[in-house]
Design a protein that fits this description.
Length: 378
C-alpha cells in the first residue's frame, strides 16, 4: 500500500474544446462516460484502490458540476478528518487573483497544501483519461531505479505516435530525449501524463519554472525538459493495460463502444478494482415485453419498449415502441420517440428525438453529435 508517503495531484481543469457540445457547460473530466460514470471517476478510483490517502483536485474550467459530483469525496472513501480529498481551485493571493497558467503552475500554486502533507513523493495525474492502473506498480519502479521522476508511458500505434509526446529511452529505460508530437517519431512510447516525482526535487523545479518569465509553466513543455537538461534521473514505466484519452467526439464514442467488446481489458465488473462514482437514487431499468436489447449497457431508470443494439444508455432514458438505437451513446434524460432511428450517434443529455426522425446510417464512417441546438457530423 502507498499510504501517506504519496500525495496525488489530479489536474481536472481541462476545457476539452475538441469534445464540442459535450463540454459546452462542463469541464472535460466531468463528461459522462460508460452509462453511469464521469471520466474523472477512473483516476479517482485508481487512487483510492491504490491506497493513496491524500489527493488534491485542481479545478478551473466550469467547475460547478464537477465540484458537485466530487462533493467531499465520500463515493471514493475520501471523506476523512485527516488527509482525504481537497478541491483546489485558483485563488486570490496578495498578488491578486489569476487562473492557473499551466499544469506545472497549478501544482506550484498549491505548494503549501503539499508541504502540509509532508510527502516523500508526489503523483501527478490527469482527470480526463479512461483507464485502470495500480499506482503502486509505478511507485515500485520509481523506487527501484532511485529516480527523480518516473513517467508512465505506453506503446501506441505507429500511425498515431505523431499525436503524442514521445519519449526516447536508453536500454535501461532512462529518458534521453523528449519529442513533442514529432512528424517522424523515433519510437512509439507515448507519455500518459502520469508522473511520479520525488517531492523535494519537484518542489525545487516548480520554483525555478515559476521564476522563468518565458515559461509556459507546463510539465511536458518546460519542467521535464529542464530536468533532463540538468541531468536528473528520469525513467519510464511501461503500462500495458487499456488507456484512452477521450479528447475528440470520435474517441469518446469509441471508448464507450469498447465497453461492449467482450475482449476489452477495461473490466467494469472486476470486484477487486471497482470504479466508484456518485450514484443517483433511481428505480431499476424496465425492459417491456416485446422490447429488444442486445449487447448493450442500460442504466437505472431507463424505460425501454423499442430496440437497443450495441449501445449505451445512461439513466432515465425512454425508448418508445418502434424506436431503434444502434451503435450509439445516449446520455441521461433523453427520449427516443416512437419510430425514430438512431445510429452511430452521441445524444446529449435531455434531448428528444422526435417520432419517425432518422439520425445516422449504420454504414457511414462518421459519428453524429446531437444536442439541444443542432445535429452535427464528426
Amino acid at each position: 500500500m502507498i499510504e501517506n508517503k504519496v500525495v496525488a495531484m489530479l489536474l481536472a481543469g481541462g476545457q476539452g474544446s475538441r469534445l464540442k457540445a459535450l463540454t459546452r457547460k462542463i469541464a472535460k473530466p466531468a463528461v459522462p462516460f460508460g452509462g453511469k460514470y464521469r471520466i474523472i471517476d477512473f483516476a479517482l478510483s485508481n487512487a483510492a484502490n491504490s491506497g493513496i490517502d491524500n489527493i488534491g483536485i485542481l479545478t478551473q474550467y466550469k467547475p460547478y458540476l464537477l465540484n458537485s459530483h466530487i462533493g467531499i469525496g465520500s463515493s471514493w472513501d475520501y471523506d476523512r478528518n485527516v488527509g482525504g480529498l481537497r478541491v483546489l481551485p485558483p485563488f486570490t493571493s496578495e498578488d491578486g487573483g489569476r487562473w492557473y497558467t499551466g499544469t506545472a503552475n497549478a501544482v506550484f500554486e498549491n505548494i503549501d497544501y503539499i508541504d502540509e502533507q509532508d510527502p516523500e513523493y508526489v503523483l501527478i495525474l490527469s482527470g480526463d483519461h479512461v483507464y485502470k492502473m495500480n499506482y503502486n506498480d509505478l511507485l515500485e519502479e520509481h523506487q527501484a531505479k532511485s529516480a527523480d521522476v518516473t513517467i508512465a508511458v505506453m506503446e501506441v500505434p505507429w500511425d498515431e505516435a505523431p499525436r503524442f509526446g514521445i519519449i526516447n529511452v536508453d536500454s535501461d529505460g532512462r529518458i534521453v530525449e523528449f519529442e513533442e508530437k514529432p512528424e517522424n517519431p523515433k519510437n512509439n512510447l507515448a507519455s500518459m501524463g502520469i508522473y511520479m516525482f520525488n517531492w523535494k526535487v519537484l518542489r525545487d523545479y516548480l520554483i525555478k519554472d515559476d521564476a522563468d518569465p518565458g515559461s509556459d509553466n507546463d510539465f511536458g513543455k518546460n519542467v521535464l525538459p529542464l530536468m533532463l537538461s540538468e541531468g536528473r534521473k528520469m525513467y519510464t514505466w511501461v503500462f500495458d493495460g487499456y488507456w484512452k484519452d477521450v479528447g475528440t467526439v470520435r474517441s469518446y464514442w469509441e471508448a464507450n463502444m469498447d465497453l461492449l467488446d467482450p475482449l476489452n481489458t477495461l473490466n467494469l465488473y472486476d470486484k477487486d478494482w471497482r470504479i466508484y462514482t456518485r450514484s443517483k437514487n433511481l428505480p431499476p431499468q424496465y425492459i417491456a415485453r416485446g422490447a429488444i436489447v442486445k449487447n448493450s449497457l442500460v442504466n437505472e431508470g431507463c424505460y425501454v419498449k423499442g430496440e437497443v443494439v450495441r449501445s449505451i444508455l445512461f439513466s432515465d432514458v425512454i425508448v418508445e415502441e418502434g424506436a431503434m438505437i444502434e451503435d450509439s451513446v445516449v446520455l441521461s434524460d433523453c427520449v427516443i420517440k416512437a419510430g425514430a432511428k438512431v445510429s452511430k450517434a452521441v445524444i446529449l443529455e435531455g434531448v428528444t428525438v422526435e417520432a419517425g426522425q432518422v439520425i445516422g446510417q449504420g454504414d457511414e464512417d462518421c459519428i453524429y453529435m446531437v444536442s439541444d441546438r443542432n445535429i452535427s457530423k464528426e
